[in-house]
Amino acid sequence: MPIAQNPLSVEVTLPREDVALLKVEGYLDVDTATEFQHHLANQLHHGRRHFLLDLSAVPFMDSSGMNIILRVYQEARELPGSVHIISPVPAVLRVLDLTGVSITVPVSANLDEALARVDAQPEGPRVPDA
Prior knowledge:
The chain has a single domain, classed as 2-Layer Sandwich (Transcription Regulator spoIIAA). The chain is built from 5 helices and 5 strands; from the N terminus they run E-E-H-E-H-E-H-H-E-H. The chain has helices spanning 33-45, 63-77, 90-99, 101-104, 111-120; strands at 9-16, 19-25, 50-57, 82-86, 107-108. Strands 1-2-3-4-5 form a 5-stranded mixed sheet. Helix 1 runs parallel beside helix 2.
């Protein structure tokens, strides 16, 4: 069995307490999707509700990667929360468009745009500040 030529790297930062930014680098495919899923599950476990997925350094994504994104999207919606894809390369954006994932999961050009979308979405009833 060949060794993966493009290992996956996931860097997690927290722009806000309930927002996780995951900068993904490498192929997001059947060989690496489980690792990506573990990072997302860890952030869910730590109470993050909004997930910003920076795919600008992902040259290729197959259905395994898309399934993980859709799965975390479903989980985040129940919190309520959200998932946003940031700056996918043209080849990945084309796959997201052709499969309809980009209709379900918003695609933003940059981090600021994604954070603005997080702020703009309804979150249900809020407790007023005291």
